[in-house]
Amino acid sequence: MGEVTVQALKDVSFEIYKGEFIVVLGPSGSGKSTMINLIGGMDTASSGEIYFHDQPLHHVNEKTLTEYRRNAVGFVFQFYNLMPNLTAYENVLLSTQIAKNPLEPMEVLQQVGLGERANHFPAQLSGGEQQRVAIARAVAKNPEILLCDEPTGALDFSTGIQVLKLLRDFNKNYGKTVMIITHNAGIAAMADRVFYIKDGRLEKIQVNEHPSEPEEVTW
Ligand SMILES: Nc1ncnc2c1ncn2[C@@H]1O[C@H](COP(=O)(O)OP(=O)(O)OP(=O)(O)O)[C@@H](O)[C@H]1O
């Protein structure tokens, strides 16, 4: 930034395995979003290496990154980012139209409990319902990795637990990798592994031998 150099991540090195449920915890500004954006191919690192299976994501062109994002990655954001002028169904449908091996949009909407609300626009849905549409949209692409940036940050406790349950179901039922970044230490109990980020460094990785069920999580 002008004369100031901000190093968002430093010496960070780790592997994520297929089907893991990872929670990344850290204070504001510690580098969590930067990490998830690098893994999701939304940002490129100024140095270092990132691989998805054997495919490098560093030093690749925008077309390769676009294909990677399109086929391998689903994103869930804190503030849903739904298209306001499309219905719930159309929001999900749109993402399946660019994916290689998508799931049936209506089936996924039913799985998140919104089959009856498919023809409603985002403004006609509550925050929790909008987040469920956003999860359906990400899941319907059938990605290998689901990256979630503060997915429960704007929700009340019980709606947050419902959303965590959906993310956990996707992880368990489809064997997909889920990574959640959050300030909320309570969510860490659900993870197979917890990454603690501080000042751009990966301070510690904690392994949970017995991850909690979403219903047991509290904050
Ligand atoms: N585009 C950018 N230009 C300059 N600095 C940036 C940029 N993006 C992030 N940073 C800085 O990099 C550091 C890490 O930011 P990042 O957004 O990854 O943190 P975070 O842990 O996700 O924070 P929060 O929980 O508040 O979202 C911060 O110091 C931030 O100010």
Automatic annotation (TrEMBL):
Residues 1-219 form the ABC transporter domain. SMART domains: AAA (SM00382). The keyword ATP-binding applies. GO terms for cellular component: membrane protein complex. Keywords: ATP-binding, Nucleotide-binding, Transport. InterPro entries: AAA+_ATPase, ABC_transporter-like_ATP-bd, ABC_transporter-like_CS, MacB-like_ATP-bd, P-loop_NTPase. PROSITE patterns: ABC_TRANSPORTER_1, ABC_TRANSPORTER_2. Pfam families: ABC_tran (PF00005). GO terms for molecular function: ATP binding; ATP hydrolysis activity; transmembrane transporter activity. It comes from the Bacteria. The keyword ATP-binding applies. Belongs to the ABC transporter superfamily. This is ABC transporter ATP-binding protein. It comes from Calidifontibacillus erzurumensis.
